[in-house]
Specification:
single chain; 251 residues; 2 domains; 9 helices; 0% strand; globular
Length: 251
């Protein structure tokens, strides 16, 4: 479990980012997401990137894990460069969009690496409960959302194991050209989805064995109080909001 470096795998170490309240984490992420969507300023997006970079360092998760995610999206960056060049936009415009993509992806990575699945459900449930005016089944919805968010990381883990198994049978994905890689992927695509669905059902079943009841609000045995670190990092996020309001002329 600890050796997995796929996108979305929880990495259990003792850091100030791990200690953050999951509700506060989700609130801060939404702030970053809104700023990335609304702001076109190079300076503000650079500040967001620096904040995400610092949080990644403070998470004590090996930095190569974050870099692996960055490197896996290299073809997207190249495609983005071609699209921007086709429409004759400036280099600064490309840098802004590059910072946006990297900041959002790596922030999601931080959330995944520093928040256990059970605390993810707790955070989503508590966050959505503020908007539960119609008394909807929030616990069930939070469980479903967390399952969806963990599906892609689980698929990457299954994919890696499947490709390793194929290599022993002569279908070496990692040491082949692009045509051979496409052939291997097409051959394992159906089995990959089937195995991922099976693993996902197993995860849900294990949650039921731990007496997780989606019809009731979840009891949280770890006290998630708002600490100094929560206030400290939230202030930095709010400072970015203040900067955006000044740049946009609202203040």
């Amino acid at each position: 479990m600890y050796s997995r470096n796929s996108f979305g795998s929880y990495y259990p170490v003792n850091s100030c980012i791990h200690k953050l309240n999951p509700v506060v984490k989700l609130f801060n992420f939404i702030i970053i997401l809104l700023l990335v969507i609304l702001s076109t300023s190079l300076q503000l997006n650079l500040f967001i990137f620096i904040l995400v970079f610092i949080m990644a360092l403070l998470s004590y998760v090996p930095f190569k894990y974050y870099f692996n995610t960055f490197w896996s999206l290299r073809y997207l960056y190249i495609l983005l460069a071609f699209v921007i060049a086709y429409f004759d936009y400036s280099i600064s415009y490309y840098v802004v969009w590059l910072l946006k993509i990297i900041s959002v992806i790596e922030y999601i990575n931080i959330l995944a690496y520093t928040t256990s699945p059970s605390e993810s459900i707790y955070g989503i449930e508590k966050f959505l409960s503020f908007f539960n005016f119609l008394y909807l089944p929030i616990s069930k919805f939070a469980f479903k959302v967390n399952s969806i968010l963990r599906y892609y990381p689980l698929m990457l883990t299954v994919e890696h194991k499947t490709f390793k198994a194929c290599a022993s049978r002569g279908y070496d994905y990692y040491n082949s050209n692009i045509i051979k890689r496409g052939s291997v992927f097409l051959n394992v695509e159906n089995n990959l989805k089937r195995l991922t669905d099976y693993k996902n059902k197993q995860t849900n079943f294990y949650s039921e064995l731990r007496l997780y009841n989606i019809k009731k609000y979840r009891t949280n045995y770890r006290t998630n109080k708002v600490s100094f670190y929560d206030i400290f990092f939230t202030l930095f996020h709010l400072a970015l909001v203040f900067t955006y309001l000044i740049e946009s002329g609202i203040l």
